[in-house]
Amino acid sequence: MPTTADRRVQIKGIREGLLVTFGEGEWSELRTALLTYIQEQAAFFKGARLAIDVGNHVVHAAEMGSLRDRLSDLGVSLWAVLSNSPVTERTAQVLGLATRLPSPRPERPVRRGDTELEGENAVLVQRTLRSGYRLSTRGHVVVIGEVNPGAEIYAGGSVVVWGRLRGTVHAGIEGNTAAVICALEMAPVQLRIADQVAVIQTGRRRKTEPMMARLENGQIVLEPWKGK
Amino acid sequence: MVAKVVTVTSGKGGVGKTTTTANLAVALATLGQKVVCIDADIGLRNLDVVLGLENRIVYDLVDVVEGRCRLRQAMIRDKRLPELYLIPAAQTRDKNAVSPSDMSRLCEELRPEVDWIFIDSPAGIERGFRNALAPADMVLVVTNPEVSAVRDADRIIGIVEAEEKGPVRLILNRVNPNLTRRGDMLNAEDVLELLAVELIGIVPEDENVIISTNKGQPVALDGKSRAGLAFQNIARRLMGENVPFLNLDSGDGFLKRLTRLFRSGGTMG
């Protein structure tokens, strides 16, 4: 496959055909560069399906239409125009062009009914975390098992332990003050939520009640974990 | 014969790894088993002293690994128990003189010759421990009823699990029933609850262990002391016998409760 020496126009193969990406420059220059390139490599481009990513350029309907016609003359069919500009996107849609590449996992999921929730990313750990184990994630953490003293969990979100929590947990590592820490049995070495640190006093007699730690007025508070 | 390789380890130092290794090896040899123990604590060797074989060392583990002698030449035979051998550690080298694959190769060579290979691991989780763990078929984790020893045992069990070695069996050593009864020592049930591994023996605190260690005469040579009896029981459990746990306490102490705990578990060998 030919590569473009001209850095203003980059072409790569994608599942749906070819994807052209425009760099900086005047629209007319970019358009000319693309057409010249296609003419030079006519044999390669013959019958190709082209998607163009115009980036921040605002392309008006007349320009887009004429480009499509010109490409058609060269035996290339334009089927999609990707753009950061809503105006250009609408223009492309009016011309019957696609404005998104189909992807197996769309970046923005299709809007569904209000009763369907997207959920958030969480890591599920179905084992006991022994001393020296360390779990670090930007999402939430769910542990089915024990968290022993000497084990550490660092989560961007909340941490739920379905078992005994006796290690160290830091929820909301990136400053998420809404993060909570829940455990069936709360006897941690230390708890941290966002930038707050709490040392939990646990007596000899353990409370076996499920507990939840959360931030309230900038302080970590511990309370019975009850359904809401 | 295809030997079973048993690594004795603890993480923390001073909990009784070497004493346990020596006594289990002696107890198994007393039961007619052919046993080799390997001291993997290169640079800080002890097992030879505890077994009373220090003055017989000519070649050591590093000599075998570096090819200065044959394996047979480094195996010191115990005169009291003709089926008990020791491969001592080098005292003048360090842990890096041996690699995990050296240990595995050595054990493969020994396996057809004996019934049991006991490896006395050094404290810590570094190279020496990795060496001792590499050939293991079973890992005996020795701990004391103290928070720091239990914490290290947990770490060790975690590493053993991560390396997919095992099974792990726990030996709770130096248990003092009086202290436990008064609540001054960690409760054995708490230890088991935290570590969640199968217990294979409880060894009571016993001054006979110190006396015998200094003499180079492991307590398990005779079952007269409580600790000696406890080690003999562990040896029999290793052989697959179902031996009840010692009742160290006359009242309704924790050991009694523990014994019940076990029987309900029903998997003790």
CATH superfamily caption of chain B: P-loop containing nucleotide triphosphate hydrolases
Instruction: Tell me the structural class of chain B.
Output: alpha/beta
Biggest sheet strand order of chain A reads 5-7-9-11-14-15
CATH level-two architecture of chain B:
3-Layer(aba) Sandwich
Named CATH topology of the largest domain in chain A = Pectate Lyase C-like
Instruction: Tell me the quaternary state.
Output: heterodimer
Total strands of chain A: the figure is 15
Classify the beta-strand content of chain A into a percent band: 25-35%
Shape of chain B: globular
Q: DSSP helix count of chain B? A: 12
CATH class categorisation of chain B: Alpha Beta
> Number of domains in the coordinates of chain A?
2
Largest sheet of chain B: 8 strands, mixed
Helix amount of chain B: 40-55%
* Tally of contiguous helical segments of chain A: 4
Summing up helix and strand content along with how strands pair, one would put the structural category of chain A as: alpha/beta
The greatest interface here is: A-B, 10 and 10 residues
Q: How many strand units of chain B?
A: 8
Which second-level CATH architecture of the largest domain in chain A applies? 3 Solenoid
GO biological process, one term (chain A): cell morphogenesis
Domain Septum formation inhibitor MinC C-terminal (chain A): 125-222
Domain Septum formation inhibitor MinC N-terminal (chain A): 9-77
Subunit structure (chain A): Interacts with MinD and FtsZ.
Q: What would you say this structure looks like, in words?
A:
Chain A has 228 residues and is of the alpha/beta class. Chain A folds into two domains: 9-94, Cell-division inhibitor MinC, N-terminal domain (Transcription Regulator spoIIAA, 2-Layer Sandwich), CATH 3.30.750; 122-224, Pectate Lyase C-like, CATH 2.160.20. Chain A contains four helices and 15 strands. In chain A, the strands form three sheets. A six-stranded mixed sheet of chain A has the order 5-7-9-11-14-15, with no helix packed on it. Chain A has a five-stranded mixed sheet with strand order 6-8-10-12-13, with no helix packed on it. In chain A, strands 1-2-3-4 form a four-stranded mixed sheet. In chain A, β1 and β2 (17-22) form a beta hairpin. The longest helix of chain A is centred in the N-terminal third of the chain and has 14 residues, at 27-40. Chain A is elongated. Chain A starts with 8 loop residues before the first strand and ends with a strand. The model of chain A has no long low-confidence stretch (mean pLDDT 84). Chain B has one domain (4-265): P-loop containing nucleotide triphosphate hydrolases (Rossmann fold). Chain B is built from twelve helices and eight strands. Chain B has 269 residues and is α/β, with parallel strands linked by helices. Helices cover 40% and strands 16% of the residues of chain B. Mean pLDDT of chain B is 88; it is low at 264-269. The longest helix of chain B is centred in the middle third of the chain and has 16 residues, at 147-162. In chain B, strands 3-4-2-5-1-6-7-8 form an eight-stranded mixed sheet, with helices on both faces. Chain A binds chain B through residues 128, 130-133, 146, 148-150, 166, and chain B through 151-152, 154-155, 157-159, 161, 194, 196.
